[in-house]
Amino acid sequence: MSGIDLDEFGSLVERPDAGVRRDSQERWPRLVRPAAGLGKVAELADWLAAVQGHAPVRPISSPQVLLFAADHGVASLGVSARAAGTASVLAREAVDGTAPVNVLARQYGAPVRVVDMALDCDPADLPEHVTAHRVRRGSGRIDIEDALTVDEAERAFRTGMAIADELADSGTDLVLLGDLSVGGTTPAAVLIAALCGTDASVVTGRGSGIDDLAWMRKCAAIRDALRRARPVLGDQLALLAAVGGADFAATTGFLLQSAVRKLPVVLDGVVGAACALVGQRIAFRAPDWWLAGHASGEPGQAKALDRISLEPLLDHDVHLGGGAGAVLALPLLRAAAALSAELPERKPEPVGDPDAVPEA
After folding, report:
1. CATH class of the structural domain 63-331
2. Per-residue pLDDT for 154 more than 50?
């Protein structure tokens, strides 16, 4: 049995401030003509007002990119275009500042933090602040064995919670959440298929760019893992241990505790969507604190986001993963905040007489 009371999240997570959201919505007719002229950008500003508890919206001044990193044992089946056990290469690029997410993050003034949860490498290969929270080296092959023990899943989950508290206490006002993994889209698809009650083929995507043969291997692995997932659907920690991984458990814990702490989060790809779906099962109000940064092209992501009623902000065929899609949403959110804060109120315009005859 887990030492974490997951039911407690249901009572601790509150919805964003609906009254402030209404205040934000009611301001637009005084700011722009027509009042609906800013469309979804205004809706984003209304969401920001609600999660901040303040209208007009405050600027996003302290964003943080957070990447949970892990290797997945199922990658040994050839379900990824990358070699199994090489997620440390992705982590090293992000730590060194050479990954696409770093380039974007520098443009928008967001520091990047990498947290090793289960990379399959010598801890000495990466800085100590990256590996300090590692739960284990790699994960089990989920088609035939558990990814983690329940104790390991709990440790990872608590790590995610602790990092959420740390960021909230430090003044972070928006988290751009991603993952660095090899084989990670496979457990993501398993979780989504299990929680949505769908077949493996419905959620199996191309991930890192696999060919048809690898797609068929991936589909078979998801099908086999689904048989192991269904008996533990009622226990979310046991589910994460059976067919998830340490990065999935940490991400789920982070998302839930961020909702408790009223810290808004932008999700990246299918891994984040899968964890959000697990989180929704634990606390149904929690998704109100999250946004989907972009459409990654993974069918599982689309399925999960539809289930938790999140619509991607962007759809630019970005399939990089690693948090890049979440960071691309940051300038749009900043634009929404600036429009809310800086547009002056207009004087009422005279209303014309609809029966008047125009002058010649």
Report:
1. alpha beta
2. yes
